[in-house]
TrEMBL record, chains A, B:
InterPro entries according to UniProt: THDP-binding (IPR029061), Thiamin_PyroP_enz_TPP-bd_dom (IPR012001), TPP_enz (IPR045229), TPP_enzyme_TPP-bd (IPR011766)
The protein, known as: Acetolactate synthase large subunit
Domain of life assignment: Bacteria
Gene source species: Arenimonas caeni
Family: Belongs to the TPP enzyme family.
Keyword terms, alphabetized: Thiamine pyrophosphate
Gene3D superfamilies: 3.40.50.970
Length: 552, 552
């Protein structure tokens, strides 16, 4: 005979949920107590809920299955919301377990009482349930898991009142069957194959599961046979890349660039991807990025098997024996001299170990990262799917727990790092093999660009100060050391390379505080010159098209 | 001719909103740009939204009027939710301005798109509005301010789409008239006066505005005339206390204690306070703290003028010339030897300067704070009204900005400090006169108590590790220094007193990392002995009653 928490724990473990990223309070104490009844469940403590939810996101991206989070009422869920948003937008499975007051305590409006379901709906539109009876709890958990693990993956939130958790009479529930997604309909495949055979200019926009090796291989064959261009979503959930894999070109963050990138195509075929739109709206500019006259086709919806759909397309095109273009191995040379953001990216490309997991939340400073690591040994790239900054460090925690035999390299902007800086403590506590590189340019640099892009032209000192985080300057080495993480501060390329080599050699967490100038220059820059300066980081075809467009 | 953001800024300033605690993104850039058009508006940047919202809460508690927050879409609001919850529970006015995508961009489901209103309703049930037209924006802001500043005060959320902000054709709106709350009905006053005259055992439970000087003076007269006991809500929004003021006894956090405290009364009179309930539910224990047979009366509802209601009661009782009992001036001696949490509280009582603002988020370590500072010079006490930890440091930021001529002393648990540790950077940036004292006991100490209180008896190592934040130990001095705040680490009472004296003498932010043993002892403690040990910190009458009850 088990109490609710114990039965829940066994149900989760039976279903393959092995990790719980937690920040518990009193209402979760029975769940915490039940941890010792289930040897298959690992509990990873975070000092802030945004770390727990971001870690669950990063874990699921790499493990291919959900972790649980354990959060304390509406406030704990609120603290975790931003990174759950990133998981939702990345279609990543996460199972939230949110403790609540005992059912009979709720009407009393105690201090921590709030409407949890209303908060949860923001990130869990597909599954929010308050489990009201101990005997239903395990079944509710299975329902939540089915929702989370389906296609598309999603965030499911199970609200667990304290008395349902401590109540006796619960029995564990058998694990749910695996989801069985289907491939695209034959008619759709034939339609897309017809477009590809037509000789028109076609791009495949790959997202979600299409960006893993099997999807890339299939897409590569299609491209080799038909001449189609392979594009990737601007912020992939998980992109496999590096030497030997078919390369894909990511849609640019800046709408100005993305418009040029997409402007050349007559057909855009979506494969587990959304129709691309501008990240933000800008006065007088279109939000849609697909050019007028370009037809959009959906080969594989989010609820379908992208790899199987691509396989069907390969078969329809008779491209099974086509040899994809593959990324040649190549690394940039070792950088020298005063450190810059570009040199950090260069050093990462120069030294990135085989099978690394690269977490990119470097915003402006990471501009050159894609180019510098293109020919590095094979690696996975995790990016900011929902635009809610503060995802990088927590995501690295989760990735490292999912893949303890791989190096995790997290590149983080200084502004973004501060949202969930508490992740460093969990890295130290769990001795995770993560090297965090913080680009310390003392600025919300991207906002300097955005301020101009939105047309807010006359900028005074008060406005400018809202983008400046250099007064006082942040010392990330001290912050890391204060949480038990080995750290150094570097301002030359030589020192950076040395620190990075040391970090890669010595297992366990490291932070490198990379002091760099703001990569986008001073306050008086304009967007056009900046675009021109960014050309070297772009794929050659795009750079050329852009130069033509921007030339006076 | 102004754009929406400029008109909004002028409308806010005209209505007396002088501070905006901000963490902006691209969708808020026009609001940021408009800051320089309004010299009366001060923008205070936070590196995390929970700092901005907690600061707005602390500011309003001390300034007596709302500040604005500036938050970035649903994710920014999510990050700020926990401290908005504390403001809601404390009935504190806060005006959230949450930027959103341009109205025409919303249907495109871009990366940062989410349902902001659903999140906002958790903390702003009384006012959530998306302003859809530039010409309506100023009027919408005034409506939000009316909602926020009314009685009771509340959190109001105005969602501001980017195109409404950048659109032209807006005009500022005249400020709303001040709220005019009314006092209790004469019949209610007469009824309560009859109870007080009856000779029965009566307690007045004071909350909200009744805990400021005017309310305490009136309540003190009533107590002096009738023998009624004066109690305060367990977590007051703002309590004026210290030498010369009528003292009130706070209802205990532990239901076991509160039950004893309230058990002696036949009548409980609520004055801007809620019927007391247990903070959490516990198996087999009642959640209601009012004993059976005790009648509850409401003198003044939250939407009424508590001070005027108490004044009417003073008049009805003819107590205008009664002299309240006043707290005598007295300070504990200077502590010596190895540092403990109790000695930190003693040192604070020994040294607290006149007119200090004390922020108490010390959870278990602050147990002795109330007693040790009871006879200190007059001060204000700000507490954790909603139970969402991470409120203390941000609240200190806001209090210091509201009262630049007063010392702010924030006592914070180590676990709680980590939720919003980024507040230290804003203290350094704004050179705020805050001394933050972190009780570093390497534990979520309160959860060790709660684990037993909820009856989770058999605790294994995995469960225990979820309450232990000592591996690795946090070095708060380094964390503070990493954000530009002067800090020291102390483990003797002598060093602590020296550091505290230095901090009080030198204007600007300081942090003292107070290394103390866990105040509740080892893992094997039981709740009863702990209650007995806590007796010295309780008011004598309660301690005596408790001893009798707990004696074998």
């Amino acid at each position: 005979m088990a109490n609710g928490a114990q039965a829940l724990m066994k149900t989760l473990a039976d279903a393959g949920v092995e990790v719980c990223f937690s920040n518990p309070g009193t209402s979760e104490m029975h769940f915490v107590a039940a941890l010792d009844s289930e040897p298959r469940m690992r509990a990873v403590l975070a000092l802030f809920e945004g770390v727990a939810t971001g870690a669950a996101d990063g874990y699921a991206r790499m493990a291919g299955k959900p972790a649980a989070t354990l959060l304390h009422l509406g406030c704990g869920l609120g603290n975790g919301l931003a990174n759950l948003h990133n998981a939702r937008k990345g279609r990543v499975p996460v199972l939230n377990i949110v403790g609540d007051h005992a059912t009979y305590h709720m009407p009393l409006d105690a201090q921590l009482q709030s409407d949890i379901e209303t908060v949860a709906r923001n990130v869990s539109p597909g599954f929010v349930r308050t489990s009201m009876r101990t005997e239903d709890l395990s079944r509710d958990a299975v329902d939540a898991l089915v929702a989370a693990r389906g296609l598309p993956g999603q965030v499911a939130t199970l609200i667990l009142p304290a008395d349902v958790s401590w109540g006796e009479g619960a029995t564990p529930c058998a694990p749910p069957p695996p989801a069985t997604p289907t491939a695209a309909d034959a008619a759709v495949v034939e339609d897309v194959a017809g477009v590809l055979r037509s000789g028109a200019k076609v791009a495949l926009l790959l997202g979600g599961h299409a960006l893993r090796e099997a999807g890339l291989e299939a897409a590569g064959r299609i491209a080799a046979r038909t001449g189609a261009k392979l594009l990737a979503e601007v912020f992939p959930t998980r992109l496999e890349r590096g030497a030997g894999l078919p390369p894909v070109e990511r849609v640019a963050y800046l709408a100005e660039l993305a418009g040029v990138q997409l402007g050349q195509f007559e057909h855009l075929v979506l494969v587990d991807a959304k129709t691309p739109v501008s990240f933000f709206a800008y006065p007088g500019k279109a939000s849609e990025l697909v050019p007028p006259g370009c037809r959009v086709h959906t080969l594989s919806r989010h609820d379908q098997d992208a790899v199987a759909s691509l396989g069907a397309l390969v078969a329809a095109l008779g491209a099974g024996d086509a040899e994809p273009v593959r990324q040649p191995a190549s690394r940039p040379p070792r950088p020298r001299g005063k450190l810059t953001a570009a040199k950090v990216c260069k050093a990462v490309g120069h030294l990135l170990p085989d099978r690394a997991i690269v977490v990119d939340e470097a915003i402006t400073s990471g501009l050159m990262l894609g180019m510098m690591t293109a020919g590095a040994p094979r690696h996975d790239l995790i990016t900011l799917t929902g635009g809610a900054i503060g995802q990088g460090l927590p995501s690295a925690v989760g990735a490292a727990i999912a893949c303890p035999d791989r190096k995790v390299v997290a590149l983080i902007g200084d502004g973004t790092a501060m949202y969930t800086i508490q992740a460093l403590w969990t890295m130290a506590r769990e001795n995770l093999d993560v090297t965090a590189i913080v680009f310390n340019n003392a600025s919300y640099s991207v906002l300097n660009v955005e301020l101009e892009r939105v047309g807010a032209e006359r900028i005074g000192p008060k406005a400018r100060s809202q983008l400046d985080i250099g007064g006082p300057g942040l010392d990330f080495a001290r912050l890391a050391q204060g949480m038990g993480v080995h750290a150094v501060r570097t301002d030359t390329a030589e020192a950076f390379c040395h620190a990075f080599e040391y970090a890669l050699d010595a297992p366990g967490p490291h932070l490198i505080d990379a002091v760099v100038p703001e990569s986008l220059g001073g306050a008086k820059r304009r967007i056009l010159p900046w675009l021109l300066r960014s050309l070297p980081s772009l794929p050659p075809g795009l750079a050329l098209a852009l130069k033509r467009k921007l030339a006076p």
